Amino acid sequence: MYLSSIDRPHAAHPSRRRSLFHVSGNVFALGAVSLITDISSEMVTAVLPVYLMIGLHLSPAVYGVVDGTYTGATALLRLVGGYVADRTRRRKFIAGLGYGFSAVAKLGLPAAGNAVGVIGAVIAIDRTGKGLRTAPRDALITLSTPPQLYGRAFGVHRMMDTVGAFAGPLVALGILAATGQAYDAVFVASFCIAAFGVLVLVLFVRDRGGEQPSKGTVALSSLGGLLRIAPVRRLVLAACLAGMVTIGDGFVYLLLQRREDLSVGWFPLLAVGTNLSYLLLATPLGVLADKIGRQKVVLAGYTALMLVYLLLFGPFGGWPLLVVVLALYGLFYASTDGVLIALAGPVLPTGVRTTGIALIQTGQAMAYLVSSVLFGLAWTVWGPASAIRIAAVLVAVAVFAVALLLRGIPSTDADEEQPA
User: Fold this and answer.
1) Cα three-residue angle 17-19-20, rounded to 5 degrees
2) Are 150 and 24 in contact (CB under 8 A)?
3) Helix crossing, 150-179 with 319-344: angle to 10°?
4) pTM, to two decimals
5) 253 pLDDT band (50/70/90 cuts)?
6) What is the mean pLDDT of residues 9-13?
7) pLDDT band (50, 70, 90) for residue 313
């Protein structure tokens, strides 16, 4: 549709050597960058909820705004990053800018002190970096992988990413224990690790800058063109709906901490439990998605999320509750994060693939911003038990709606199809 088959990297390089996991070296390099960066990011994420709500005594409503900002406030920059990366064909450079912004932002947290407004600004800068880097990175994964292996490639990448997410809270916990609960030490160490991730990107990730699209392929009008493609339009709607019923990790962990009366010192380990489940399941579920259908795996993930919400105020507690909830929460992420983008990859034309991925991610992030704010308000007005039960009902409704939207999404490359 936008490019001929000879322009597609997987068609142009049929003899590309692949690793034990049958993915390219570029995917592994991107996974290494994400692994290192997620150590840095999760060091901050693991302590931020307890730092803000217990250390700074923020209300759930205010925390909801901050948490929404952390994921969604700069979501439109995903579109900017995706469009510029497609237009210039410098996906590695745009991703590198994003990783650099996030690294520098870590130094702003200790400088912010107790000023909530400054903390919000620093978080916005950090998320600006994530907004710029995510779509170019995911586009590089698809451009380094044949379509039939997208699920596997994203599964391997997300597995490596989650190794970092698993290690990050443990590193933060160790630093807090060694420094007498000095949050500033966590933030400074996070910056150093993030800077190393940028260096790995520069040295080991290969761009596809030489593969230029046909003239006129990448223009502002291409965004409207993407939405005129029925499968892309349905994917964007499904991503928005899914984001609208997903509350932040911090809320889930705060509810667990309050229900089980866990000490503040153990709070970062809740993220470790989720990330361990995600780590173990990401690659197997990615491979399974390629075999049985990516739609089925995504829907199973949101069903697991509904069970998580129900169990937070269910009939039993203690360590069995912690194990089951964190395992299901990791299953949710492993079933949806990379698999949704793998589902999108084949229906997005190569010439505007980064823009298309950014469009889907932006819709989901903007919806998440609204969801986080509304959940914080619901917690404040009706209490945590009512708020999470309402969230569970909304997830159940969303599962049926997403199933209808994703039905019939093709698995062949969009460049091999004619316009709808």
Assistant:
1) 140
2) no
3) 140
4) 0.69
5) confident
6) 40
7) confident
In whole angstroms, what is the distance from residue 79 CA to residue 361 CA? Answer: 9
**Which has more pLDDT, 39 or 216?**
39
Is residue 244's pLDDT more than 60?
yes
Count of CA atoms in the C-beta half-sphere (13 A) of 386:
9
Record the tokens describing residue 275, joined without a space. Answer: 């990330």
- The pLDDT score that the predictor gives to residue 14 is 36
In 3D, which of 50, 45, 43, 40 has the Cα closest to residue 265? 50
Distance CA 222, CA 360 (A): 14
Cα–Cα–Cα angle for 381, 385, 389, rounded to 5 degrees: 105
Other C-beta atoms within 10 Å of 135: how many?
A: 33
Domain membership flag for residue 196: yes
Contact 162, 275 (CB under 8 A): yes
Predicted local distance difference test score (pLDDT) of residue 74: 60
Provide the residue type at 200 as one letter: V
The runs of H, that is alpha helices, within 144-182 are: 150-179
Residue 3 inside a domain? The answer is: no
State the Cα–Cα distance between residues 304 and 287, nearest whole angstrom.
19
The CATH number of the domain holding residue 341 is 1.20.1250.20
Could you tell me the residue range of the domain that residue 139 belongs to?
A: 22-209+224-415
Tokens encoding 165: 């997410």
Quick check: is 9 in a domain? no
Q: Which residues contact 12 (CB under 8 A, 6 or more apart)?
A: 6, 211
Longest dimension (CA), the chain: 62
Q: How far apart are CA 177 and CA 154, in angstroms?
A: 35
Considering only CA atoms, give the Rg of the chain: 20
Query: Buried (b) or exposed (e) across 40-67, using 16+ Cβ within 10 A?
Result: bbbbbbbbbbbbbbeebebebbbbbbbb
Q: Is the CB of residue 140 less than 8 Å from the CB of residue 207? A: yes
Q: Residues 71-118: pLDDT tens digits?
A: 655 666 777 777 777 777 788 998 999 999 989 988 887 777 667 677
Best CA proximity match to 130, nearest among 173, 97, 163, 155: 97
- Give the total number of structural domains in the chain: 1
Burial of residue 322, with CB atoms counted within 10 A of its CB: 0-12 exposed, 13-18 middle, 19 or more buried: middle
- How far apart, in whole angstroms, are the C-alpha atoms of residue 125 and residue 98? 10
SS3 123: helix
